From TrEMBL:
Keywords: Ribosome biogenesis. It comes from the Bacteria. Residues 73-93 are annotated as: Disordered. SUPFAM superfamilies: P-loop containing nucleoside triphosphate hydrolases. This is Ribosome biogenesis GTPase.
Length: 110
């Protein structure tokens, strides 16, 4: 679909938490079986979502789309909330510091 809207630079997400929970209800239901409430469904022990991926009940591509939607939703929320924006900025700076250290170490190895 093509939409011509002069002056509009982009379309983004705004508070889609309820929508993500509805669209990915299967993943949300699996997440209730995780050992940890703050499970990110990556490598935590006792993750019911990763177990479902391993045994074929959940497609890994669907889990990736779920993660992407959550990440975009968090970024959209952080733009509106100063506390979340500050937290996101700190996390971004920490990543940048780690990358600088990694590249310096790599350059010294050459």
């Amino acid at each position: 679909m093509l939409i011509d809207t002069p002056g509009l630079r982009g379309i983004g997400l705004h508070d889609v938490t309820d929508g993500v929970e509805q669209v990915f209800a299967d993943i949300e239901a699996l997440a209730h079986g995780c050992n940890f409430r703050d499970c990110e469904h990556r490598s935590e022990p006792g993750c019911a979502v990763q177990e479902a991926v391993t045994d074929g009940r959940l497609d890994v591509a669907r889990l990736d789309r779920y993660r992407r939607m959550l990440r975009e939703s968090e970024r959209a929320a952080s733009r509106a909330d100063a506390r979340q924006r500050s937290k996101r900025t700190k996390a971004d700076k920490a990543i940048a510091r780690e990358l600088r250290v990694m590249y310096r170490f790599r350059d010294r190895q050459r």
